[in-house]
Amino acid sequence: MDSSAEFDVLVIGGGIAGAAIARDAALRGLKTGLLEKNTFGSGASSKSSRLIHGGIRYLEIAWERLKRGSPRESWKNLRFVFAALRESRILRKIAPDLVMPHPILIPIYASDRRSRWMIYLGALLYSKLTFFAGSFRWPCLYFSAGAVLKELPELNKDGLVGAVKIWDNISDDQKLVQATIESSRANGARCFEHAEVQSYRYDFEKNAFELKIGGNSVLKKVWTKKLINAGGAWVDEIRERGKEREKDFILPLAGAHLNVNRFLPCSVLLQARDGRFFFVISDRNISRVGTTERVVKNPDKVDATADEIDYLLGSVSRYFPTVKLSKKDILSTDARVRPLAVPGFSQDPSQVSREHQIRVGPTGVIHVIGVKLTDHRRAAQEVLDRLVPSLLSTCPNAHRKTSTHRLPL
Question: What is the pTM of this model?
Fold first, then answer.
């Protein structure tokens, strides 16, 4: 095989974002390449909470923004939830074996700062949005502690006044990445593991990017008309190798998870003492507990810390005192870095937008930031919708419109 190659579109980063972009590009008839410095999905894409969901907590943020007199910010959060719910439906349609409906119980306590009626209304609104997104299932409302405890007898009953059950979706994140990579390859994309980008530059004479590749890849040099940086937590590091890093694009937030033997009959969304939400995702024989949030500097060296383990175990014990989880019950831990876009107004993690962003560098490199497992397909479509018109002069047969929303993986 040649040690060099030429592409119409080259994607850096073999997580769910890069895989989705490569798939969309290949399906549009573009000569596509994908480079991953380790193995596909080895970063955050294989260490998620594994939920494909709309993010019901963003409805509360929308309400808070509205009360503060910021209807634009309120609408932005409401639109974010709707878009995520629509993507959930699309992913369930194109990958029914990998994305499956999953119920989540949200207990309500008298001490909660939200009234039970606000939570009931929020669940009804969430389900109403699923209807407009093309998929609908009524939430289940529990109006007494007794009704909740019949469903979840392990739950702390002190102050319990009710609950709601909503429906989201669950996926095997690693298998979803692999299926997307396989679809990319089946449609002509060349995807390489252990192909780390050492440097890139734009050659104005050739009107193309030149990349030098390290690692164990058979490729050593690559030319491409369009370059997309979907490196996730490594976006800024990649920008530095192209000598275009003036200020950081991402705020790298690490989140830890614990895996224990399944101890609950269903999944739950709870609130820790510090106000952060956390999940216990019960799937098959495992309960997955997470997540935490802290800023990190090196995304290559991220593990669950002792403090994070204690925080998650303590949060679980608060709601399930009879379960008595301890460190000896932990089967494994993992941590990932969520590459959220740096906010212009605050470094407070709670204020950072969870919506992905697309930014263009000084030489035309497209940087894709903050892509979630749920919205990877939509982010890829947005990138290609912006990119394809500029390629039509040299790739006249390229398709302007995506087909990823209807073709199964």
Answer: 0.93
